[in-house]
Design a protein that fits this description.
Keywords: Disulfide bond, Glycoprotein, Secreted, Signal
CATH class: Mainly Beta
Structural class: mainly beta
Oligomer: single chain
Main location: secreted
Protein name: DMBT1 protein
Subcellular location: Secreted
Organism: Himantopus himantopus
CATH topology: Immunoglobulin-like
Length: about 120
């Protein structure tokens, strides 16, 4: 566990360890939950499909394409849960492949009209 105070900035970094130097890393989704085995019932979204959901979330530009860095403000689930767990999904793409998910950025899904 990593202990922080409420509203303290948390800085995270993910690194890709590969002999292929032409890969890039993209943070697609990060979701928090008070239950480490359930990220569906009670969750808080920091970023979803590349779209920032929390106003304290900030992505840093790394000088290395195989490193993703971001930060957010520590929060609590209505002061009822002593711990918060984070699950992040990252995407690995070929550097310079502008048609890949890494270069799409925020992908908001449009809702379909159910009709009558």
């Amino acid at each position: 566990p990593y202990y922080v105070d409420l509203n303290q900035n948390l800085f995270l970094q993910a690194s890709l360890h590969s002999s292929d130097l032409n890969l890039t890393l993209f943070v697609d989704t990060c979701v928090a939950s008070p239950d480490p085995s359930d990220f569906k019932a009670l969750t808080y979204e920091l970023i979803r499909s590349g779209c920032v959901k929390d106003h304290t979330y900030f992505s840093y530009n790394s000088s290395y394409s195989d490193v993703a860095q971001f930060s957010f403000n520590a929060f609590s689930f209505i002061n009822r849960y002593p711990s918060v767990y984070l699950r992040c999904e990252l995407v690995v793409c070929r550097e310079g492949d502008y048609s890949s998910r890494c270069y799409e950025g925020c992908v908001s899904r449009s809702k379909r009209d159910a009709g009558s």
